[in-house]
Give the backbone structure.
Amino acid sequence: MKILFLGGGNMASALIGGMCERGFGAGNITVIEPDASARERLQSNYGLVALTCPDAGVFGSDVLVLAVKPQQMKAALAAFAGALQEKTLVISVAAGLRLVDIGRWLGGSGVPHSKLVRCMPNTPALVGAGVTGMFAAPEVDAAGRELAERILAAVGSVVWVDAEEQLDAVTGISGSGPAYVFHFIEALEAAGLGQGLHPESARCLAIGTVLGAARLAEASKDAPSTLREKVTSKGGTTAAALAHLAATGWHDALVGAVDAACARSRELGEQLGQG
Ligand SMILES: NC(=O)c1ccc[n+]([C@@H]2O[C@H](COP(=O)([O-])OP(=O)(O)OC[C@H]3O[C@@H](n4cnc5c(N)ncnc54)[C@H](OP(=O)(O)O)[C@@H]3O)[C@@H](O)[C@H]2O)c1
């Protein structure tokens, strides 16, 4: 099976690294990447073929993974317009870009390409700990969905959604979510400093707490709300902290933040698809 990556930057490198560890042969992977240092790094790390621009041989690839910046996509797809074979499964990891626009750009003046899967990964994918929301066009069969899932599972877990619009919600929760968590870590660290801890200790405690709580939530049969109740003794320290958080309207503020991210995702989808 021939797999072609368009773009060989951070996300493509993470996917390729994870795929090679999971038995996808590097000999079947080709990357198109204009940057010479990125091409050399991919070639020497994985022994794959990296090209400056598409040649005639790439249009028959079984899979095309679109991993350029959303703003670069329309120009990058111009070389493929009308040239890609109908069988090619196209998997986009580009934030915000809608399948109707990608399909239209790939089709050129002919029939839009329809074997399309759109994914919304997140930054922890760069360390193999991502979570990706995925949506497949109706033209993608079960084997195509399974293949797309195997590729994205190389950098973490995956969640399928039933409608493409739900990827705006995925963007608001898990796409932008790492920034909310980083912000939470920053605040916890600052609180530790304020309580007189050494900077390294404050950071270590803040990051370790988030990591440990997430792992416990993942491993436990209990819902996060139950886990929270279990560590909140009446009249204790956690109860004092949670009462303060509730009084600040923290929960509603976070829900409002996600709403703002989802709304911005919808707006960007409109803008990016123009032309
Ligand atoms: N990084 C993340 O955590 C993350 C999370 C979710 C989604 N994504 C999505 O993943 C995609 C890639 O992001 P990234 O972080 O990997 O970006 P990146 O590191 O900038 O990689 C994109 C690469 O594509 C290259 N490129 C530009 N034009 C090209 C063309 N015409 N043909 C082939 N390659 C071309 C760029 O080269 P130059 O640098 O020379 O322009 C760059 O090396 C984006 O669409 C983004 O929305 C990324």
